[in-house]
Amino acid sequence: MAAAFRITYPEAEMSYLVVDCNDGGSDVYTEGNRIYGYSRYNRGSLADNFHNWFIIESDTPFETVAKVEGPHAYLLIGYPKTTRGQVVNLKVASSFIDFDQAETNLAELGDGSVDRIKEEGRKIWNETLGRIKVEDSNIDNLRTFYSCLYRSVLFPRDLSEINAKGKRVHYSPHTGEVCEGYLFTDTGVWDTFRCLFPLMNLVYPDMSEKVQQGLVNHWKESGFLPEWASPGHRNCMVGNNSASVVADAFLKGIEGYDAEELWKAVVNGANNWLQGTSSGRVGFEAYNELGYVPCDIGLNESAARTLEYAYDDWCIYEFGKALGKSEEELAQYKANALNYKNLYNPEYHLMQGRKADGSWNEPFSRYKWGGDFTEGNALHYTWSVFHDPQGLIDLMGGEENFVANLDEVFEIPPIFDESYYRFVIHEIREMQIMNMGNYAHGNQPIQHMLYLYDWGLQPWKSQARIREVMNKFYTSAPDGYCGDEDNGQTSAWYVFSALGFYPVCPGSNQYALGTPLFKKASVKAPGHGTAVINAPDNSEENFYVDGLEIDGKNWNKNYITHSQLTSGAQLDFTMSSKPNKRRGTSEDAKPYSFTNE
Ligand code: CA
Question: 196 CA to middle of ligand 1, Å?
């Protein structure tokens, strides 16, 4: 972790540099033209010995040094008289390990030339963002796309450092010790399991391998996989969706890590809870006994937890199957993958919280955010059956009802009940402003829902809604996001959707088809073929898919597979301004469902 700074000063009798070391315990001092310091500022979930050590080396000697001591230390450096445009160069390095490691990190900067480092950085960014090439005459769409791709690759963050012996090591937020290998942090898995990690598995498999190695280390150092790493185990959001991150990587062929260790980790996580955090499963005892987390045992957001645990159980089942685990080992997860059914109330045709005695949590309001759900309402959460839309179709009484219930989300005005939060949380306000009924794209739980018409055998409805969301809620302007970006998830939604497909069910090897945004796009990851997506007659009006050929052969399914993309398939879309109501309407056009497995 090192950076070069170039500061240009004006003409002045004295010019200054302020080093703000943050509160929570910090210190700073100078030695020659160097500044040494540390900051202990953090928001918890860390071992007691946490320090962010830093060294700043200035190419210009200091004239004066003044210091503010205390838990929030400051340093005020005075440079002698500067002329207009005078440049001071700083080399800055930090380490979570110690000053010696910060010194090693500082050496990465070499001569510290800002121009050289900038050029090296430009090449790395070009390689990174250039893995997806899009071509179009609409420059705003290109800007939005690459801004989204840029945001998608910022998380999770790598905590590891290369030591003086050239070995990769990291400060463990769990033990406070220096451990070998990778460790990644700053990702809320509740958000990012949905399509951010799947994007990595498709476009950056070389990074996925490192991330999985890092997950093995989280498990070995703390006994749990993080649900919200920041940098240790935080208490934030619900679910046990680290199982999805593990399963999707393995099932999409990522290698180079100890998958057997991660099997132990997901089994442990499904049957334990790391107290005071969201890691493992809050309420696992009741869930395993009753098949749902009851709403009356002192746990909030019980329906959201249940629905996500059921999907997570499917992930564990599929992961275990691929590892060759026995039927006995898999039985619990296979059975529990259907637990979402326990919360479906046919009276409202929605998911609902349920008490330990089996009765429903009444009074019920489909407009109520929070309560049994997490940052959403029953209209948003009923669709959290990523792995089994067919099961949900069956519960609802067939495709026609299923599609009517999907439509209803858009048709109901953006009415809401904020009584659980006792104020209008920003996610609610964003739903109101976006004005697509009760569809709330500014938060994550519903983002996959637009694609579910593919299962309802009316894919043209997905296509129309997806294009509407891409156009309305994402722009290249400073206010170009419609709500929580959340560690790349909302950006990755756009990246996938602009390519024309989306991983509704991470772990399934399939992508539901939407509507490509560009006339041409290609995806090339190391070790994969180049997937090409052509839609030459694409336009603002022509957003419906009229036909699709893959490698020259007609393809009438509402999905494509991961292996088609990684083997370098060519997708040729024919686009139209009118929906093609014959395409994608046969039973075998449906994407994956557990029920049909
Ligand atoms: Ca969010």
Answer: 13
Say how far apart CA 589 and CA 597 lie, in whole Å: 14
Asked if residue 483 has pLDDT above 90, the reply is no
Q: What is the pLDDT of residues 508-554, one digit of tens each?
A: 999 999 999 999 999 999 999 999 999 999 999 999 999 999 999 99
Within its chain, how far is the Cα of 239 from the centroid? 14
Task: Give the max Cα distance, the chain.
Answer: 80
Q: How far is the centre of ligand 1, averaged over its atoms, from the C-alpha of 370 (Å)?
A: 13
Q: 338 CA to middle of ligand 1, Å?
A: 26
Q: How close is the Cα of 248 to the center of ligand 1, in Å?
A: 21
Distances in whole angstroms, Cα of residue 6 to Cα of each of 17, 85, 92, 115, 125: 12, 11, 11, 10, 21
Distances (CA, A) of 539 to 241, 467, 471, 544, 578: 37, 11, 12, 10, 12
Instruction: Specify the amino acid at residue 42.
Output: N
Cα–Cα–Cα angle for 461, 462, 467, nearest 5°?
Answer: 105
Cα 486 to averaged position of ligand 1 atoms, centre (Å): 6
Alpha-helix runs per DSSP H in 223-355: 242-251, 259-270, 284-290, 302-323, 327-336
Spatial distance between the Cα atoms of 592 and 561, rounded to a whole number of angstroms: 10
Which whole-number Å values give the CA distances from 71 to 47, 68, 76, in the listed order? 19, 10, 16
Residue 572 φ/ψ, nearest 5 degrees:
-110, 105
